[in-house]
Amino acid sequence: MELFVQTLILGLALGGVFALMGSGLSLVFGVMRIVNLAHPSLIIAGAYVTYWGFRLWGVDPIAMLPVAAVILAAIGVVLYKVIFEREAKSAKYSEMTVLLTFATAMIVEGGLGAMFTNTQRVTSPDYATDALFIGNIFIPTGQLYAGLISFAIIGALALFLKYSRFGNAIRATTQNRDAAELLGVNVSLVGVVSFAIGIGLAGAAGSLVSFVFSFFPAKHWEWIAVLMSLVVLGGMGSILGTVTAAFLLSVIAAFVGAYIGSTWSTMTFFLALFLILLVRPQGLFGEKPELA
């Protein structure tokens, strides 16, 4: 029983981090239909911002989170204006973005590798290696903080989307871009702000990743399938679905690692991606496409 509870706690803690990692990807796809394969590489860029803030000036990774988010959001605005805005109304926009974001991921990886080499790094505040004990059950403090902060950020995002005027504009654009434009929504502004928010979330996730996982520039290739499995299982464009899938798959992966073997835990995400595409391509919260 203790092993069961311990595994559940570890799975839930990591689920929060994965949920934040995937939420920006889901938001960008939901609003702009951009399949952002560069999202994991931008998470790593955020991790490097946090790492060097900690290494050079001793700034706590959690305190660096808003800094990384703002820097990555600014980068997101530049990327959107330079790469994605021009063809936003194209009928084949989503297909084009797969190639564009793949190329962007390669450029980001190459740039990070040239600046920082491919040495594995990790931010090491005191709480990263500490733990809370409840009897024989332990909760890694770093994972606990990361999970709670992720949950708070996602909650703030949900409140913003549901209750703010601009959040309503984003939701309207997600549901029907053309109808939103006819009703007076500035879909161009919605697009650039949504992309900035999505990439800003990648920067925030990178700050948490920096002390939960070790990282290096090429690490993003390991995360693409993981994040895509969350987004596809939850339903492309559904933040609620992504969060639900993150907790579900993280807990399942934790149990697979505890009872079968750690080398098999990552396979949970790949298998989930394969099965959901085979059985229910629209995901848990996605709408089934209508037949023409």
Describe the structure.
It is a single chain. This protein is mainly α. It is 73% helix and 3% strand. It has helices at residues 2-32, 39-57, 61-84, 93-116, 141-163, 165-175, 177-182, 187-212, 220-234, 239-259, 267-279, and strands at residues 131-134, 137-140. A hairpin with a 2-residue loop joins strand 1 and strand 2 (137-140). The longest helix is centred in the N-terminal third of the chain and has 31 residues, at 2-32.
Q: From the coordinates shown, what is the CATH architecture?
A: Orthogonal Bundle
CATH topology: ABC transporter involved in vitamin B12 uptake, BtuC
Overall number of structural domains: 1
- Which structural class should the secondary elements be placed in? mainly alpha
Order of helices and strands: HHHHEEHHHHHHH
* Fraction of helical residues: over 70%
Uncertain segments: none
Query: Helical stretch count?
Result: 11
In spatial order, strands of the major sheet run 1-2
Mean pLDDT across every amino acid position: 90
Q: Which descriptor suits the 3D outline?
A: globular
Radius of gyration over C-alpha positions, nearest whole angstrom: 19 Å
Which CATH first-tier class would you pick?
Answer: Mainly Alpha
Reported for the largest beta sheet, the result is: 2 strands, antiparallel
Relative strand content: under 5%
End-to-end gap: 52 Å
Total beta strands: 2
